[in-house]
Amino acid sequence: MADFFQNGVITTLHNLTDRPLDELESELQKFSGRRPMSLVLPSLFSELEGPALGPILDDLKHACYLGEIVIGLDRADEKQFNYAKEYFARLPQEHRILWNDGPRLRAVDKMLADKGLAPTEPGKGRNVWYCFGYVLASGRSRAVALHDCDIVTYQRDMLARLIYPVANPAFNYQFCKGFYSRIANGSLNGRVCRLLVTPLLRSLQKVVGHSDYLEYLDSFRYALAGEFSMRVDVLNDLRIPSDWGLEIGLLSEMYRNYTRSRVCQVDIADVYDHKHQDLSEDNPQGGLSRMSTDITKAVIRKLATQGNVFSLETFRTVKATYFREALDFVERFYNDALMNGLEIDRHKEEKAVELFAENIMRAGEFYLSNPMETPNMPTWNRVISAIPDILDHIYEAVEEDNK
């Protein structure tokens, strides 16, 4: 059971009463008359063979307030795409699969590439970007939610609570971020958020001085949650990062485009578990090592756009400040876990901090040597300006694939 404390500058919507799911869904059904709703599911084909997605779909069958489900399918050949069509056919809602590796969407991608507008890096960010393009093209919804396909503790009330703040016509939120405790199987998880993001943000506040942006990011209880919802109008002007900085990048875009009163976060689960990434100590391009570097780069780039000047000495100071802050957080989380009877390996926690500290320096050095890097994909407004009928091409490609 959550508390009712409002921390930071972002409205927090709590789970105070464990309200019955049928009540929430009944309200959402009424809201759907004025504000139709869609769900985006970015997926690798391998997740169709995993333990989580099948039960998620079986639960989603009963989310009658959804008017559309958009599935972004990556790393699938033709045989696998045909299998996916049968796999997702259990959904009674209007649903479409974006076969991102298929010839029709590849042709759309080439059309964008000829204008210098195509995403250049494969991954979740690119998948989500094209899914958002289809949501705009279909015009079926006014509110859209997104969650991952590897949530092994999935329950349908997660989605209901996630989309409620942007679906309710009485609320004026444009964007909602889900949060939860990363507790599952008796362990305290979520190392990157606990041991990198929070101590990094607070270290940067000490080094570069007070920043409204850093205070805003620090107000989110789980900034790296892959679950969020928004009004469809928001999609037009989002510059989505293509790397592991997707979640931080989305929050940064909302900071740029909207006042704090139009952004909220909501408690969506008491228990949450999904596929875990390796720390990848020996591979800077993999796992949590790559993730920590990309997240740090995303924050640095945003601060630079606000006029902050960085040097190698600055990043050395940030690294040292972070290391002390993070070790303090290791102690806090160790004590919290111990009191609640949860497992936590203090040695592994401190090894993670050491790796993240190195990657803060690596991210800083990369930024200094590549200050003009622009990893964000273009806004759909820009794409439509360059190719006015692009949404028609996307819509036709997806409809043809799904016949």
UniProtKB/TrEMBL annotation:
<protein>
    <submittedName>
        <fullName>Glucosyl-3-phosphoglycerate synthase</fullName>
    </submittedName>
</protein>
<dbReference type="InterPro" id="IPR029044">
    <property type="entry name" value="Nucleotide-diphossugar_trans"/>
</dbReference>
